Amino acid sequence: MKLFDCNNCGQILYFENIQCENCGYTLGFDAEKMDLLTIHAVSEDTFQDILNPEQVYKYCYNEQYHACNWLIPADSETSFCKACTLNRTIPNLEVTGNLELWQRVERAKHRLVYTLLKLELPVSESETDPAFPLHFDFLCGTEEEHILTGHEDGLITLNVLEADKIVQEQTRAALGERYRTLIGHFRHETGHYYWMLLVQNNADVLAGFRNLFGDERADYQAALKTHYEKGREDFVSSKFISHYASAHPWEDWAETWAHYLHMLDTLETAYSYGLQLDPRTSFNKDFQDVHLKEDPFLTRSADELVRLWIPVTIMINSMNRSMGQPDVYPFVLSDQIAEKFSFIHRLCWSIYE
Ligand SMILES: [Zn+2]
Ligand SMILES: [Zn+2]
Ligand SMILES: [Zn+2]
User: Fold this and answer.
1) Is the separation of the CB atoms in 340 and 331 below 8 Å?
2) Quick one: 317 and 211 in the same domain?
3) Ligand 1 centroid from CA 211, angstroms
4) Domain boundary residue among 147, 172, 197?
5) Same domain (yes/no): 90, 140
6) Exposure string for 87-97, b = 16+ CB within 10 A, e = fewer
7) Which of 92, 205, 340, 350 is deepest in the core (most CB within 10 A)?
8) How far is the CA of 139 from the centre of ligand 3 (A)?
9) How many domains does the chain have?
10) 38 CA distance to ligand 3 centroid (A)?
11) Å from CA of 239 to ligand 3 middle
12) Do 218 and 348 fall into the same domain?
C-alpha cells in the first residue's frame, strides 16, 4: 500500500482513515487519483479538496456505516464508489454484530480493490466481461445454513463470519492452514475470476498455464475429495505455495495469485517507507542490496520482486516474533513457485509471449 499523508499538516495516514488524528481535517480516498485527499465540508454532504478547491466530492453511500471512506464526484449520479458498487448483497445490518463483521470485510475488500486498480485490471462492470461482471455476496452463515466462501462466474461469495476472529482461528486450525485472513480470501477468490478473464480464452496463455500449474480439466470435485482424504501425505512444498494449492490446478493458480498480490501490496508498503535492509550479521546473499528503490507496480522483473520479497518476509516475521505474534508470512518460496509468480506477473503486464 502507498503511504498517505495529510495535506494540511503532513501527518502520516492509513488508507482507512477518515479524519487526520493530528489536525482533525476530514479525509477521503479518490480512486481516480488513487490518493487519500484532505477535504473540508462546503455543505452538509459535499466536500472540497483543500489542494484543489474546484474539485467537489461526496462520500460513498456506505460511509454512513463507517464501511467506506471513498469519495465520488459530487455531481455523480451513482451513490456508491468503485469498490462498493461491486456489492450485490450485504448482511442484514439489523442483526446484532453484523455491522462490525461487515465493516471488517469492507476494509479488506477496499484494500483488494486498491491493488486491482493499481494493476489496471478490469474491475467495474463496464470494463469486465458483461456476461460475468465482478460482484460480491456477503452472507452470514447460520447453524442451519452453512455459507461457503467461493467464486462462480464473477460472483464472489464470502461468509462474513470469516470476519469473526474466533471462527476464523477455529477454521484455520481445523484445516491445518498456516494463514487465514479476509484479505487472503479476497485475493484468492479474485484469482479464480481473473483466470476466467485472462487465461481460459487465450490459447497461448492457457498452454503456458497448463505447463506450470497442470491441466485444469482434471475433475475438480474428485480432486478436492482426494485432497481432503489424503491430508498432507505426499505434499511437495517446493512445488506449491500452500497445501491447498496442491488440490487442483485452479486452486494452485488462485493461491499463487493471492500470494502475488500479497507480495505486491507488502512490497509497495516497504517501498513507500524507503525500506533498506542491511542485517548486522556475517554476509548473507539473500540480503545483498535489499533496498526498495522502485515502485513494485512499475517493476518489470518478477525475479527482482521475489529477490526483494524473501528478505522482507524474513525481516517482518522477525519483527512479529519480537512482539510475540505469529509469522506474518509463514511460507517458503522455491524457484518453481517463483516461476509461477513470474507467469502471473507477465500476464498482468500483458507482455506474455
Ligand atoms: Zn492533518
Ligand atoms: Zn464505498
Ligand atoms: Zn479457490
Assistant:
1) no
2) yes
3) 52
4) 197
5) yes
6) beebbeeeeee
7) 340
8) 18
9) 3
10) 38
11) 17
12) yes
189 CA to middle of ligand 2, Å?
20
- Report the separation in Å between the CA atom of 278 and the middle of ligand 2, taken as the mean of its atom positions: 40
CA 11 to centroid of ligand 2, rounded, Å: 24
Q: Which amino acid is at 240?
A: F
Q: Are residues 40 and 98 in the same domain?
A: no
Same domain, 113 and 192: yes
Range of the domain at 116: 82-197
Among 102, 28, 30, which residue's Cα sits nearest to residue 65?
102
Domain boundary among 197, 215, 240: 197
Query: Are 250 and 352 in a shared domain?
Result: yes
Three-state secondary structure call for residue 228? helix
| C-beta separation of 5 from 14 below 8 A | no
And the C-alpha cell for 31? Answer: 480512486
Do 211 and 343 belong together in one domain?
A: yes
Going from the first residue of the chain to its last (353 residues), give the mean pLDDT of each consecutive group of 10, the final group possibly shorter: 96 97 98 97 96 96 98 96 97 95 98 96 88 94 85 96 93 90 97 96 96 96 93 86 96 98 98 95 86 94 95 97 96 95 92 43
